[in-house]
Amino acid sequence: MNHSNATINLTAVARKLEPQGPAAVLQWAIAAYGSDLAVATGFGPEGIVNLHLASQIDPGVNVFYIETGLLFAETYTLRDQLQARLGVTIEAVYPELTLPQQAARHGSNLWQCDPDMCCFLRKVAPLRRYLAGKQAWVTGIRREQTPARAAAQVVEWDEANGLVKINPLAAWSAAQVWEHIRQHKLPVNLLHRHGYPSIGCRPCTRAVRPGEDPRAGRWAGFGKTECGLHAGNGRFPKGHKLPVGEGSV
Ligand code: SF4
Q1: Is the C-beta atom of 68 inside 6 A of ligand 1?
Q2: 117 lines ligand 1 (CB under 6 A)
Q3: What pLDDT was estimated at residue 51?
Q4: Number of structural domains in the chain
Q5: What is the spatial distance between Cα 228 and Cα 235, in angstroms, rounded to a whole number?
Q6: How far away, in angstroms, is 205 Cα from ligand 1 center?
Q7: Cα 223 to ligand 1 centre (Å)
Q8: How confident is the model at residue 210 (pLDDT cuts 50, 70, 90)?
């Protein structure tokens, strides 16, 4: 039962579904979009909850992650555990450039001098390419995570990527997410036990000190809080031109 996005009043759907909880949101999304829906995960606690709930509705649901080539070993272990436990296949979505190609064109360790550019090449552009073939995607966004996410709806239009965005956990607290993980004994990234509440690429993630904001360990020292996948800031970084054939958006 695939719907055309033009026929859906997303605000009305969001208003109706939010009180019914994340499982109902996913149930609706999977019924409405089928194979034109994809569930994203960065292997954080929210992504794990979404994967768990979606796999209970349809273990064949499209699931993907962005393979920057710079993830922690513990993240790959978790990916394998989740596939085994939930019976889902988690597809890797790759950037156009390998790390050596990126180093040759833009300099080595681009994340140190221009993390916006690096995130664009390794995350935002591959995501755009992948989502171009879909009608809707599922994210782990919660309103309380960052000011930029405070207005997120459980179902909304994603202007930056040009499709419907499903945020089943928009209204949940971190405590609710962790309670779900505990209740269902779901595997989590081992780095959480070592002071990493938010885990991304190795070069841009550090442990946080007690009392620090949970996302303080991401892009520390750069004043950057989002990779551009969600905040609508995934435009090509100012001052850069997109080389031909390299992640057209
Ligand atoms: S998180 Fe860091 S290493 Fe990963 S894509 Fe962004 S800037 Fe590059």
Answers
A1: yes
A2: no
A3: 98
A4: 1
A5: 8
A6: 9
A7: 14
A8: confident
Assigned domain for 60 exists: yes
Q: From residue 172, give the alpha-carbon distance in Å to each of 64, 67, 213, 229, 248.
A: 22, 27, 18, 20, 35
Instruction: Flag whether 245 is in a domain.
Output: no
Instruction: Reduce the DSSP state of residue 47 to 3 states and report it.
Output: helix
Assigned domain for 226 exists: no
Residue 143 domain boundaries: 5-193
| DSSP of 75-128 | HHHHHHHHHHHH---EEEE--SS-HHHHHHHH-TTHHHH-HHHHHIIIIIHHHH
> The CATH number of the domain where 25 resides is what?
3.40.50.620
The protein residue whose alpha carbon is closest to atom 4 in ligand 1 is 201
**The overall pTM is greater than 0.70:** yes
Catalytic residues: 227
How many angstroms does the Cα of residue 125 sit away from the middle of ligand 1? 13
Query: Which band of pLDDT confidence, cut at 50, 70 and 90, is reported for residue 8?
Result: confident
Question: Going by CA atoms, what residue is nearest to atom 6 of ligand 1?
Answer: 119
C-alpha span between 30 and 51 (Å, rounded): 12
Question: Is 227's C-beta closer than 6 angstroms to any atom of ligand 1?
Answer: yes
In a domain, 199, yes or no: no
- Does 208 or 93 have the greater pLDDT score? 93
